Amino acid sequence: MQRFVKFLCHLLWKMKSLWTVEHGFPHQPSALAFDPKLQLMAIGTKSGAIKVYGAPGVEFTGLHKDTTAVTQIHFLPGQGRLLSLLDDNTIYLWELVAGAPREVGGVKKDGVVCLQEVSSYSLPGRPGIESCSATRVTVLLLLRSCDLLCIGTEGGGVYFLELPRLTLKDSQTLLQDQITQSLPDDYRCGKSLGPVESLQEHPQQPGKILIGYSRGLVVLWDLSTRQVEQLFLGKQQLESLVWERSGNLFVSSHNDGGYSVWTVTNGNTCNQQPVSSTIPYGPFPCKAINKILWRTTQTGSPVLLYSGGMPRASYGDRHCLTIQQDKEHVTLDFTSRVIDFFTVHSIEQEKEFDEPSALVVLLEEELVVIDLQNPGWPSLPTPYLAPLHSSAITCSFHISSVPPKLWERLVNAGKAQQGRQHAHGSWPICGGKNLAPPPKQQELLLTGHEDGTVRFWDASGVALTPLYKLGTANDPSNDPDMQQEEEWPPFRKVGCFDPYSDDPRLGIQKISLCKYSNKLVVAGTAGQVIVLGLSDERSDHMVDVSVVDLLQDREGFTWKGHDRLEPRLKPAPFPPGFQPLVLVQCLPPASVTAVALHAEWNLISFGTSHGFGLFDYHRRNAVCTLHPNDSLAMEGPLSRVKSLKKSLRQSFRRIRKSRVSGKKRTITTPTSKVSDGLSLAVRQEDVAPVQRRIEPRSADDSLSGVVRCLCFADTFLRDGTHHGPTLWAGTNSGSVYAYALEVPGVGSGRACERGGAGESSVCVEAVLGKEIQLMHRAPVVSICVLDGRGKPLPDPYEASQDLAIAPDMTNAHSVLIASEEQLKVFSLPKVSAKTKFKLTAHEGCRVRKVALVAFSSTAQEDYSEHTLVCLTNLGDMHLFNIPALRPQVRYDCIRKEDISGIASCVFTKNGQGFYLISPSEYERFSLSAKVITEPLCSVQLDRPLEPTPARDTTGSRPSAACETREMIFSLLFDGTTTQPQANGTHKNQMGQAEGRSQHTHTHTHTHTHTLLPLTCYFSPCLFFLFITL
């Protein structure tokens, strides 16, 4: 018994590590930095998160204590340190530290690195009324020596911090008054120089910096002599500065849309005019050039890059970045605002030229990388940070254990698409080393979007990589790098973020993919259901269209919604990939709410708010349709019309319920002794808990006919000796309909007994077999048929091709029906209730998502068990064993206020899941102690790695209950206490963060620091389970 308790606590301790990694593009980015030595990129967000990226799979994440926007980030090159400036005027120092060795897949991994906050500094205000605004930081400059940080302020002063201790050097402070004294009288004229807009160190002479003031003045300041070496008397409001590599000239950009080139010469202390001034998109008023870069090349013509500068009247609303070299001129036109950009170029001092190889642009909604080495400057495909929300995500679907052949064909189709749009250069952000072992299986995540596209993502590892994009709209998508017709400015659309859909009817609502037959079903907002097949060759063909009237010309009904989409009436070209075979158009053209695919039977089923239908896509004919609210649509002994038998049954149930509710039961109160915890949990199993009163829902609800779920199964429906294909449908009113199907060549139905008729001439038939009406009319969320061993039936082709264990067809089957209020198992074929769990009555929550998950044992490789996972409207997860429906474990996962996150959750078959934490980010979590996807990475630094320090005791402490629980778990396991560590944007009291699953969880958009609540239920079944393990 003691060994069992120890093992159980160890397993539950592992299960506390829910959140593993975040996929997608950071929500609301606000700052960008690049380390040219380590080849690492950092992105700061408005919620206070810092995310560092390197090669695919190399990720580090940290979170500031306050949810304040990150305005600037600067790397200390080669050191694994970075500085962040927040909107509250605080500067933080972060560094990569060595984490504890990990054991991954039985192999010990050393050198794992995590990101940790080290220290912080706030610039003190100067005496006076406007002290706060005068010392507000506007710009930071890190000297190449990495021992001094220059800070420009709104008051025009420049302060200096010693690194890495972040101590102020008062003797170096440069106030605006000292600069004003060196100015000519005609330039001074009593006006303030304004805030410091830019600080740039001389590329060849360390210790000399350019200081640019908002008024237009630029000063070359010598730190060693504390003297003004040269003045550049600009008269236009300054935006940014950049040095030319030799240090003989620099370029300034201004708010009038122009830039100026200035020469730096010895002996000339005051420069009145620049060498040249240009307004590239003039002569009409233009917007400011916010940032400008000047990069030299061996060809002699420098590459000039700048953001903004568009004519106000014509293109003032465009988000643009211009690239110029000699006669080549391209204006990159983005669909979201430019946050910042940098170039990847040579930084060796002995090199004469910059030779830029890539341009990296951080936009508000995506990251764009431009190849500057190939002609035409094409864009590079992103292996990660792809914008999931290029069009709003409307649904998702996950496929585990993708067959290698299907994977290869998808990759090839995706490469064919990228070949038309992108260059095939190497990814420039390639720092760090991914220590995670290669995935044992390939995983696909499919996302449906508002614009009618379906995107296929490689979800096998930490980096969520785009593989292939399928478009279902009639009009082919435009090439994002296609040159526009306008001659000036020479715009070129770049990027894939396009949040605006021309037609809301194109939105994808449901997706289903059979990985063995390569058949894909996509259903949309206007009642369109498309069946597609995978092809490696380009094809030109007509798409068959079948119209299915779900109401069958029902009198008195008038559809007042949107029209159906018009199908293409002529042959169309389809590139390699998934190509449409048949289009099924539901009438009325309401949004499809459920879809099911059985590729082995060539059948699809689909449902809307007006009913559901069954379609044979091989023979191109509709099998049957049914409107759930039509009482005359169902005939036979199980009609929806109330019968005397049914009324008597309900009357007896009400009497029995009143007797049960009248009895008073005493509930044993748990004692505080830890030793009695397990025995008390077992004793309480037989005590009936207090239940909430659940009111039945109205049968007249206008949404009662919405079909919520559909399911195909080969099971016993007519009798207990003959099994065959069946279709199950659940509605919003708590009704479940079961159809017996007669599929030619399948089962023991009449279709197989007919002689002489060819299989192609025999049609699929459907006969209503059973109807189940749940008592409180709660919406049916999920239906699943269990075999004689209580296991879910295998997917199509798995049993017939020996890809999975054949189902038990000798013992009686059962059907598991999950509604929003309860879970219930019925025996088949009699449809009598076997067991149930009233989740709403017991827990006060409603079921939102349900999945049957196979959990593999960490002790035995060949042992696994299926568990029912429920996600509720409160954001917590409930796990039940099947078919007994005994609760096993419950823990919080998603905030109950995050309605979109709960609605977007999708489970995998091996115990993982995804949900949206923002429109552009998926949070990945794991319910399994064995299957975990987490970043494990290392970085080779110029300094020795510091070990992770001990826990900070000055931070906020968790509750006593949480501390007691942690102590119990750790003492039972190894006699020591284990401290939580941070994962992703989930941060502990120290601010330490890294890429792995941990115990403390905080979203980037909420940052609530709470330890994970965990509730464990014990039962004899669960005890037997762990003894088996």
Output the radius of gyration. Answer: 33 Å
Number of helices: 13
Strand order of the largest sheet: 16-17-18-19-23
What is the quaternary state of this protein? single chain
The span between the termini is 14 Å
**How many individual β-strands?**
68
Biggest sheet details? 5 strands, mixed
User: Ranges with pLDDT <50 over ≥5 residues?
Assistant: 1-17, 476-485, 630-646, 660-688, 748-758, 950-1029
Strand content: 35-45%
What does the average pLDDT come to?
82
The rough form would be described as elongated
What is the SS-derived class?
A: mainly beta
Helix content: 10-25%
GO molecular function, one term: myosin II binding
WD repeats: 63-104, 444-458
Organism: Sparus aurata (Gilthead sea bream)
GO biological process, one term: exocytosis
Give a description of the structure.
- This protein has 1029 residues and is mainly beta.
- Helix content is 11%, strand content 38%.
- It has a 5-stranded mixed sheet with strand order 16-17-18-19-23, with no helix packed on it.
- Helix 1 packs across helix 12 (960-973).
- It is elongated.
- The model is unreliable at 1-17, 476-485, 630-646, 660-688, 748-758 and 950-1029 (pLDDT under 50).
- This is LLGL scribble cell polarity complex component 1.
- One of its GO terms (cellular component) is cortical actin cytoskeleton.
- Residues 980-991 have a biased composition (Polar residues).
